[in-house]
Specification:
Layout lengths: L14 H6 L7 E7 L2 E7 L12 H15 L9 H7 L6
Antiparallel strand pairs: 1-2
């Protein structure tokens, strides 16, 4: 498909592609030049103060927690005292 470069170097992405990629107004795209071609990749920008959540280590721990919840390997506590007791920290 051929598109036209407009004023201020703007290009319109055809609706067919935006629908397939579920892109909307305000979405962010990374642009790279690869072997003489422009490549656009949809991205999600994560605020710096939330980046810890997306680290490989944290996401690995999240998967472990989800598995534990899935198989009922969790305990509900109704108070701080009960939680500390369950953790073996009731002498604090």
């Amino acid at each position: 498909m051929i598109v036209e470069l407009k004023q201020k170097s703007q290009v319109t992405i055809p609706a067919e592609y935006t629908r397939k990629l579920k892109l909307g107004t305000g979405d962010k795209l990374e642009i790279e030049m690869v072997e003489g071609r422009l490549v656009l990749t949809p991205v999600v920008v994560i605020p710096r103060d939330q980046a810890w959540f997306y680290t490989k280590a944290w996401q690995t721990d999240e998967l472990v927690a989800e598995e534990q919840i899935k198989y009922g390997k969790v305990t509900d506590c109704n108070s701080t005292e009960e939680l500390l007791n369950q953790l073996g920290l009731d002498d604090l």
